[in-house]
Design brief:
This protein has 292 residues and is α+β, with helices and mostly antiparallel strands. The chain is built from twelve helices and 14 strands. The chain folds into three domains: 47 residues, 2-Layer Sandwich (Uridine Diphospho-n-acetylenolpyruvylglucosamine Reductase, domain 2), CATH 3.30.43; 110 residues, Uridine Diphospho-n-acetylenolpyruvylglucosamine Reductase, domain 3, CATH 3.30.465; 111 residues, CO dehydrogenase flavoprotein, C-terminal domain (Enolase-like, domain 1, 2-Layer Sandwich). The protein has a five-stranded antiparallel beta sheet. A hairpin with a 6-residue loop joins strand 13 and strand 14. The structure holds flavin-adenine dinucleotide.
Length: 292
């Protein structure tokens, strides 16, 4: 590693003051699962590393139809917390797909969003959930919609002196969900990840559908046309396959060392169909349970 100064502030104010002072020359350290490799390869050469692990940012609170998650909530908490499972179970399903046990033990929600890997599960899930991020700097706080937060590969709307402090999602009633991905090996980032959230009405028609994809562009994308095509429809296999095709046909994924663009596009269609089918099945089941 390139040498750097290490600071472990105990309050958010102290951490923000350090970032304000050092701006571009400082880096926040959370779980270290992405930053430490970057430091090891000297792809990041900060003069100061600000370790935020001592800050009280690991809370999980559910009230007023909202679930609020501190930025330091670890991936394993997303997997294991009863509160999260009760109010937003799609987060548990997504977290289980991340890396391996070591990565999930240390890696954090805020770190995953701030790192903004285009194929990461949590940015795609937060895009589907219409989550909002609270970010703080020495001059105040602001709220950013998840879909505006990632601005390119490994690039976000965060200013160098800002810290993500909290992520807020609505705790949706009677919604089916599914996260589908295809990775070359267990524990790898998925080549493509698809998140589907579906709500059906009493008559079994689609009341609301959300489809978000990762690994198909420089940031997570919402398949708005597919969502629109599903609204009000009876979710037959043909309708779901049609919606997945609409989503797929609007994509132009990049090629890289792991997969070609056309292959990613094909995966998006197949995984989209599977995710929608599973989410619809869950939605019908939970709508039935609610009606009883
Ligand atoms: C072997 C391996 C496999 C992995 N597989 C997957 C996978 O399948 N899916 C997946 O999504 N991820 C995967 N990851 C990445 C993992 O999820 C990381 O935990 C995550 O990307 C970054 O979280 P972190 O807390 O470790 O952040 P760090 O590594 O500490 O930081 C990452 C970046 O975010 C910034 N940052 C961190 N927290 C904040 C904050 N609160 N506010 C502002 N900036 C912040 C840092 O400055 C840095 O730029 C893998 C990692 C490894 C090592």
């Amino acid at each position: 590693m390139h040498p750097f100064e290490y600071a472990a502030p105990e309050t958010l104010e102290d951490a923000l003051a350090l970032l304000h002072e050092h701006r571009d020359e400082a880096k926040v350290l959370a779980g270290g699962q992405s930053l430490v490799p970057l430091l090891n390869y000297r792809l990041a050469r900060p003069r100061v590393v600000v370790d935020i692990n001592g800050l009280p940012l690991d809370g999980v609170r559910a009230d007023d139809g909202r679930l609020r998650l501190g930025a330091l909530v670890r991936h394993h908490q997303l997997e294991e917390s009863d509160t999260i499972a009760r109010h937003c179970p799609v987060l548990r399903e997504a977290a289980r797909l991340i890396g391996n046990v070591r990565v999930r033990t240390l890696g954090t929600l805020g770190g995953s969003l701030a790192h903004a890997d285009p194929a990461a599960e949590l940015p795609a899930v937060m895009t589907a959930l219409d989550a909002r991020l609270t970010v703080a700097s020495a001059s105040g706080r602001r709220s950013i919609a998840a879909r505006d937060f990632v601005t390119g590969p490994l690039t976000t709307a965060l200013a160098p002196d800002e810290i993500v402090t909290e992520v807020e999602v609505s705790t949706s009633p009677a919604r089916g969900f599914a996260v589908e991905e295809f990775a070359r090996r267990a524990g790898d980032f998925g080549l493509v990840v698809v998140v589907a959230l579906v709500r059906v009405d009493r008559g079994g028609r689609v009341a609301d559908a959300r489809l978000a994809l990762g690994g198909v562009a420089d940031r997570p994308v919402r398949a708005a046309a597919a969502e629109e095509a599903l609204r009000g429809q009876e979710p037959t296999a043909a309708v779901l396959a049609g919606a997945a095709e609409i989503a797929r046909d609007r994509l132009d994924p990049p090629s890289d060392a792991f997969a070609s663009g056309p292959y990613r596009r094909l995966l998006a269609g197949v995984l989209g169909r599977r995710a929608l089918a599973r989410a619809v099945a869950g939605a019908i089941q939970s709508e039935g349970a609610e009606a009883r």
